[in-house]
Amino acid sequence: MSTPHLGVVGLGIMGRNLALNALDSGTTVVGTDLGEDAVRGFEAEAASDVVATTDLDAFLDALPTPRNILVMVPAGKPVDAVLGSLAPKLAEGDLVIDGGNSHFPDTSRRHDEMAAQGLHFFGMGVSGGEDGARHGPSMMPGGPKEPYARVAPILEGMAASVDGEPCVAHLGAGASGHYVKMVHNGIEYGLMQLLAEAYDLMKRGAGLGNDRMGDLFAEWNTGPLRSYLVEITADILHQPDTVEVQPDEMPGHEGPPAGMTGRYLLDFIADTANQKGTGKWTSQDALDLGVPTPTIDVAVTARYLSALKDERVAASGLLGTPAGRAERPDDLVAGLERALRAVFLVTYAQGFALLKRASDAYEYGLDPGTVARIWRGGCIIRADMLETFREAFRADPDLPNLLVAPAFTEILTDCRHALREVVALGVGAGIPVPAFSASLAYLDAYRSEWLPANLVAAQRDYFGAHTFARIDKDGMFHSQWDPAGL
User: Fold this and answer.
1) Phi-psi bin for 329: left (phi > 0), alpha (psi -120 to 50), beta?
2) Residues 146 and 225 both lie in one domain
3) Which CATH number belongs to the domain containing residue 41 in this structure?
4) Domain co-membership, 110 together with 132
5) From the candidates 77, 113, 130, 188, which is the catalytic residue?
6) In the list 47, 167, 285, 485, which could disulfide-bond 138, CB 3.0-4.6 Å?
7) What distances in angstroms separate CA 133 from CA 5, 332, 346, 376, one per listed residue?
8) For residues 359 and 285, what is the distance between their CA atoms, to the nearest angstrom?
9) Which pLDDT band, with edges at 50, 70 and 90, does 4 fall under?
10) Residue 135 belongs to what domain range?
11) How far is Cα 429 from Cα 435, in angstroms, rounded to an integer?
C-alpha cells in the first residue's frame, strides 16, 4: 500500500467513527472486532471498500509493516487483553495506539512492556465524543517521538482544525498523552459544575425561566465565554420535552397528563450525575504532586453528593430546604457573566499548573502552549480563551500559573468583585455554590502575600515535633511548647 494505513481494533461507536473519519481523509483502514455485527456495520457505513474481519490474523496480514494500529476498547482489562493478543503477533517497529480513556499509570506500564518487545506504544487521549470522532476530534498522543512522524499525517487528517492548524500534536514522552487527557477531563468536570451552579443561581436565586436562562447563555456565548460547553448549555435549556407519557408509566411520580409534556426536557431529568472516574484521577494525582486544584476537587465531590438523592430528600425534611431566592436577583444575574469569566480562567489555570508540575515530575516534556493549541477545537473544553492561553505560554514558557499572565491580571481585577458578589448572594440564599466558592478562595489565597499557615505549622510542631521554618533565620526549628496556664 502506498497510501497511509491504519488498523483499528474495536469497531464500537468511537472506534467505528474514528475509522470512518480516517477513511474520509484518505487513509486506508483495516478494522477488526470480536462482534460480527460491528464488522458488518462498519463495512456498510464505509464509503469505499474496506477490509474488516473478526479474525485477528487476517486483520494483521492485511496491514503492511511497520503496522500502525489504533486500539479503541474500554479502558482497563480489555486493553490488556487486546495487547496480550496482539503483541506476540507483531513485528519489531510496529506501533500500537491506545485511544481509550486509560489511567496514565496503566499507560506507563504498557509502554514499558511493549518497548521490551521492540514495539512502539502510544497512549492517546481523544476528546469530542461521538460526533467529534466522526468529523474531527482533538487528539492527544504521547510516547516515543520517532514513530510519531509515521502517523502524524493520518492523525492530522482526522483531527479538528482551527485557523488551518490541526488539533493534534505529539505531546511528550511516556504516558503524557493520557495524562493530558485526564487533566482535560478534570477541567471539564470543573467547568460543567460551574455552569450547573450558574443555572441554579438563576433558577432558584433569581427565579428565571428556562427560555430566559437559555437566552442568557446564548448571549454569553457570543463574547469572552464563547465555548462548546456554554453553547450546549443554552441548547439544553431551550430543548422542549417531546416524550409521550402515559399515566400508568409514572406510578407514584408527579408528572404531566398523558401525551406530550409541552415543557422543557431539562425539568424532567433527575438531579443525579454519574462519572467514569477521570475527574477523580485528576484530583488524586494533584494531591500526590502537591498541586491545589480545588475547583476540580469540589466538582468531583458535587457529583458524589448528587448521587445521595434519598439522603438529600430525607435531610431536607429534617433540616429544612434553603429559601433559594437571592436578596438582589437582578444584581445576581447582572454579575454572573463576569463571575463565570473569572472562574473559568481559575479552572483552566489549575489544570495547566498541574500539567506543568506533572511534566517535571514524570519527565514528559510537555509544552503548555501546544496543549492549549490542540484544545482549541474538537474537544469538549474548547473555548476562545484557549488562544489567549497559548499566547501567554508563548510569551513565557515558564509561566507558573495563568493567573499571573499579564493578559489576565486586568480581567481578574475587573471580574473578581462580581465573583465575590455572586458567591455572597448565592450563600445568602442558601444555594450551594461549591465550585464558585472554591474558585474564589483559590484566587484570594493565590494572591495573598500572607496566609495563616504559620499557625498550622505551629500546631504540627506542638503535637508532633514536625518543626517549622522561621522568617528571621534559615533552617528548621522545634519549640518546647508550654501548655496554656502552666
Assistant:
1) alpha
2) no
3) 3.40.50.720
4) yes
5) 188
6) 167
7) 18, 38, 29, 16
8) 12
9) confident
10) 5-174
11) 16
Q: Are residues 216 and 162 in the same domain?
A: no
CATH number (domain holding residue 430): 1.10.1040.10
Amino acid at site 423: V
* Same domain as 365, residue 349: yes
In this structure, the number of other CB atoms found within 10 A of the CB of residue 31 comes to 29
**Residue 473 is part of a domain; what is its CATH number?**
1.20.5.320
Closest CA to 336 of 412, 415, 438, 414: 415
Same domain, 155 and 229: no
Point out the catalytic residue in the list 113, 145, 165, 181.
181
My answer on whether 138 and 30 are in the same domain is: yes
Q: pLDDT-based confidence at 245, cuts 50/70/90?
A: low
Q: Clarify whether 181 is annotated catalytic.
A: yes
How far apart CA 374 and CA 391 sit, in angstroms, is 13
Asked whether the beta carbons of 358 and 182 are under 8 A apart, the reply is no
CA–CA gap between residue 363 and residue 313 (Å, rounded): 48
Q: What angle do CA 37, 42, 48 make, to 5 degrees?
A: 145
What are 383's strand-pairing partners? 227
| 342, 459: one domain | no
Please report which confidence band the pLDDT of residue 1 belongs to, taking 50, 70 and 90 as the band edges.
very low
The answer, yes or no, to whether residue 260 has pLDDT greater than 50, is no
Confidence of residue 3 (pLDDT cuts 50, 70, 90): confident
Number of domains forming the structure of the chain: 3
Is residue 324 very low, low, confident or very high in pLDDT (cuts 50, 70, 90)? confident
More confident site: 317 or 247: 317
457 vs 250, more confident: 457
Which pLDDT belongs to residue 257?
45
Task: State residue 215's pLDDT score.
Answer: 98
What value does the CA radius of gyration of the chain take, rounded to a whole number of Å? 26
Nearest CA among 154, 165, 162 for reference residue 122:
154
The arithmetic mean of pLDDT across residues 190-215, rounded, is: 97
The model's pLDDT over 325-361, given as tens digits with 9 standing for 90+, comes to 999 999 999 999 999 999 999 999 999 999 999 999 9
**Shared-domain flag, residues 298 and 386:** yes
- Alpha-carbon gap, residue 336 to 385, rounded angstroms: 17
pLDDT digits (tens, 9 = 90+) for 474-484: 999 999 998 87
What 3-state DSSP class applies to 321?
coil
Helix-helix angle 294-306:176-200, to 10 degrees: 60
Helix (H, G, I), strand (E, B) or coil at 240: strand
81: left (phi over 0), alpha (psi -120 to 50) or beta: alpha
**Domain-terminating residue out of 143, 174, 205:** 174
**Rounded mean pLDDT of the chain?**
93
